Amino acid sequence: MSEFYYLVRKNIKLIFKSKFAIIQLLAPVAVSLLILKLFTGMGGNLTYGVVDKDSSVSSKFLISKFEVNRSTIKYYDNEETLIKDITNRDINGGFLVPEGFQESIIGGNIKNVDIYMGTNNNFKKSLEANINDTVTTLEQISTGASNNKDNYIKILEETKNKTIKVEEARLDDKSSVYQVTQMSIGLLIFFMMLRANSTSYIMLEEKRSNCYSRIFASPITPLKFISANVVANLLVLVMQAVVTLLSMQWILKLETDIPFGILLLFLVLIAFVAVAFSTMVMVSSKDFSTASIVSNLFINISCMASGCYFPIEFIPENVRKISFLFPQTWVLDIFKKYQTSSVTIDKLYINIITLIAFAVTMLLIASFRMKFSNKEMTALND
């Protein structure tokens, strides 16, 4: 075991030998946190513009519903000014309540509320859903009032004056938080794979310097040599993951509803896979250029297909079907599971087992390749 500890210590010293090592370690963390800060900072109160051409009890009821969701309402006299402010990004979006809106509800032939929005379709869907829900409520009130205008207005007034108790609650939609956190973790995974790739170059350098031949003549087995490189590399990546997660919770105070331990576990597993992959590539490659091309090609394609750079919803359906061939997908999949339902650790076993299988398979290939590469290394040195 003393040889193993010596190799681990030696590799860690080599990793931090450069004076830029700490910067290389913390830079990905800073970038991931910066993206989180930028996008979560955009999740504050929304400002909507309204053109109320009906000026009725119904239109006021509709507009008042947005205050429940902590939105700011800005009134406009015409839609031209409203559209101009949306274009200038002074407001997030807006809508126009048409003249005769209340009468159309009572008459059972509801006029559509026109929605104006910029390029953000997520805001448009949210605004449209809120309006549709409120219009449905008004339609049901009209039906309950037997489509009688006086009874209908009386019910709305009583609702407004709290004679009829209506409980309102703001539902926290955390889908955007999950999405931003998923993208940030995806970017961190990308950086972790690059980091594992760069530190594994130590093995290729030792291969070029005929270090492997001396290993075969010593008590150190190829498996022990690979394991020491894996452990040293993994310790660095785990340190990077811990710093990121602690910063998310303590500095940004971001609540993802995914337990710290679960996130850390999956980041450790993907770090294990990243180290195993880079080790396999370095052991199998004859030179730096080949290793670099293979590694960069796999990392970029797999990260893109898995949704590390952007939400998985933006990826074509055909690509999504093959994305589960890449380990990153099995990490980012936990965000989808937590977003759609209550998740316990037993529902994540398939993800954990799959990631371990990825890593073990790659390490076995690396060990096998190293064991039978002595002749190749001798030829390379000649």
UniProtKB/TrEMBL annotation:
The keyword Metal-binding does not apply. One of its GO terms (cellular component) is plasma membrane. It is a multi-pass membrane protein. The chain crosses the membrane at residues 20-39, 183-204, 225-252, 258-281, 293-312, 348-368. It is found in: Cell membrane. Keywords: Cell membrane, Membrane, Transmembrane, Transmembrane helix, Transport. It comes from the Bacteria. GO terms for molecular function: ABC-type transporter activity. Residues 149-373 form the ABC transmembrane type-2 domain. Belongs to the ABC-2 integral membrane protein family. This is ABC transporter permease. It comes from Clostridium intestinale URNW.
